[in-house]
Write a structure and sequence with these properties.
The protein is of the alpha+beta class and 492 residues long. It contains 15 helices and eleven strands.
Length: 492
């Protein structure tokens, strides 16, 4: 009986090992007096963890690209350390090795070595004091605090609060880049500027840019004559690596490349990773920077693969200097045939801005340029999506230029105008003067390589359009045959 009563009065929950000393006593259980005093004073934080979106710009000459790269200096490393020093990341979440998963870090656009950015974005979970965004929704105070820990070539423009599910990479639907090119190296005696402008528009559309990426990975080696194809690939990779380092070599890489079009057609295997959509291209009017005239090559697309913009600029220079006809650009974009395209220097390429969608696939204005976000309302997916007047008609570059020149922007808020002026100040005082101080010899060397080196010569350029048209007719014929067989199967 006493044993049963003892079990009834015993605690019915497991006693943690750290708390067993509270229950260890020689006094019978019914006569114990347990004092549950706190073992340690709880730490009270006056901050909360929120999902924020950071808008920043940088000059990438001194860095090995944007992405955190262990052992090399990167823009993300400097920004990550500045956020930590400003109190945005706790010591328990800080990783000197660059483990950004602890703060759910996501970048909007990844730039390569030497490429700059006027307005890039990144989102993360950051420690923010309570009430920070109530009086400063654009986050200018947070931006100034981060800038005090950043070098002069990286500037944070704004920090805004977003939803916890926001992802800078997956919700970015449009990225715009601007390649400044010296005007004297764009003009050529053989082709007029209007012809170059018309050829530039050939990039617009959805294509498989396997001729404009770093590693194409499109040809299989299990078909006809694999040894010859493998040899061609090894030579191509050597040449591409050589171009990437902007070096001039002598020997077999400078020889005219050998192309086997029948083998390329037989072994071509489409790689969907290289599928990209270019929304618009535009050649801007020349601008004077530090006494030199620069022409802006403007690209707007959903996304870009490695070296795509620099190779697109390289092929445009091939057209501008009469090395290939403009009609051959379509063949390079929409055919299985291989082209060796030069890679333009990265010194004057910069990311101009990005456009985002919300989780319901509607346009969003995360930096509140044209007013606070609208309240959540039931939306009809069958109807047309709502439009944000400024972002729909004017890209970031035009908005920044209008703010710098004092041109009124319809619907812009006071905070939005202040943000655009900050970006314009960074462009006029840091980015463009930095590009102007860079040496112009790489552009001259690039044009000389394109014109003089035989490795960029396409020996069968007159035969390629005919082969391309035959390939298109064959594909259309096969499509019609498949459609006819499908109809015959349905009828039976």
């Amino acid at each position: 009986l006493s044993s049963c009563l003892h079990r009834l009065h015993a605690p019915r929950f497991p006693i943690p090992r750290t708390s067993q000393r509270l229950f260890s006593s020689s006094v019978p259980y019914g006569q114990r007096v347990i004092n549950f005093e706190p073992l340690a004073t709880p730490v009270v934080h006056d901050t909360m963890k929120l999902r924020v979106l950071i808008l920043f710009g940088y000059t990438g000459t001194a860095y090995m690209g944007l992405q955190f790269n262990k052992g090399h200096k990167s823009v993300e490393e400097e920004l990550y350390n500045a956020i930590y020093k400003a109190g945005g990341i706790l010591s328990s979440n800080y990783s000197p090795e660059g483990d950004l998963r602890r703060v759910r870090w996501s970048r909007g656009s990844r730039t390569d070595k030497g490429v700059h950015a006027l307005a890039n974005v990144t989102s993360l979970m950051m420690e923010v004091h309570a009430g920070t965004f109530e009086g400063d929704p654009m986050g200018f105070t947070l931006a100034d605090n981060m800038n005090s820990h950043l070098p002069h070539d990286i500037r944070v423009h704004s920090v805004v609060r977003v939803s916890r599910s926001f992802n800078s990479r997956s919700q970015c639907i449009r990225r715009s880049y601007n390649m400044l090119w010296p005007e004297e190296y764009l003009k050529a005696p053989h082709v007029s500027l209007d012809e170059v402008r018309n050829a530039f528009n050939n990039y617009v559309g959805k294509y498989n840019f396997h001729n404009f990426c770093g590693k194409r990975k499109t040809y299989t080696l299990d078909h006809v004559r694999p040894s010859r194809l493998e040899q061609e690939h090894e030579q191509e990779v050597e040449v591409e690596d050589d171009i990437t380092e902007e070096a001039t070599t002598q020997g077999e890489n400078n020889e005219t490349p050998r192309y086997d079009r029948e083998m390329e057609l037989a072994t071509f295997k489409k790689n969907d990773i290289n599928d990209r959509t270019i929304l618009s291209t535009h050649i801007q009017a020349p601008v004077n920077i530090a006494g030199h005239a620069w022409v802006g090559l403007h690209y707007v697309g959903e996304s870009f693969v490695t070296y795509q913009i620099r190779k697109m600029t390289g092929m445009l220079m091939m057209v501008a200097h009469g090395l290939i006809p403009p009609s051959l650009m379509k063949v390079a974009l929409d055919s299985p045939y291989r082209f060796l395209v030069p890679v333009a220097p990265p010194h004057s390429l910069y990311l101009e801005g990005s456009t985002f969608l919300d989780r319901q696939f509607f346009p969003m204005d995360p930096f509140m340029l044209f007013g606070p976000p609208a309240p959540e309302e039931p939306r009809n997916r069958r109807g047309p999506p709502p439009k944000i007047p400024g972002l729909q008609t004017q890209p970031w570059g035009k908005l920044v230029h209008a703010a710098a020149s004092g041109t009124p922007i319809p619907g812009i808020t006071q905070g939005g105008m202040e943000l655009l002026k900050r970006i314009a100040a960074f462009r006029d005082n840091v980015l463009l003067p930095h590009i102007a101080t860079l040496p112009r010899e790489p552009f001259q060397q690039f044009v000389c390589d394109v014109i003089k080196q035989p490795r960029y010569v396409v020996p069968d350029m007159e035969r390629l359009p005919v082969l391309f048209q035959e390939n298109q007719d064959l594909r259309e014929r096969k499509r019609q045959e498949r459609k006819a067989r499908l109809l015959a199967t349905e009828n039976t």
